[in-house]
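Quarterly update from the structural biology core.
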Amino acid sequence: MTEPDTETDAPAPQGWCVCGQKVPVADAREVTLPNGRPGWAGHCPECGSQLFAIRRKPAPKPK
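Predicted structure, tokenized:
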């Protein structure tokens, strides 16, 4: 049995936009904050404003 490809199964990164909706980050690119924390930068597909979302650590899998 093969393992599913996590790249294609992973949902798009999401962030809160100034238009008041949680939307997927369009043209998301990985960035690193000055303190070393990873994040996503892109823009809102609805209104075009810039978005930034801090990447979360993956939740531990239950045993």
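The chain has a mean pLDDT of 79.
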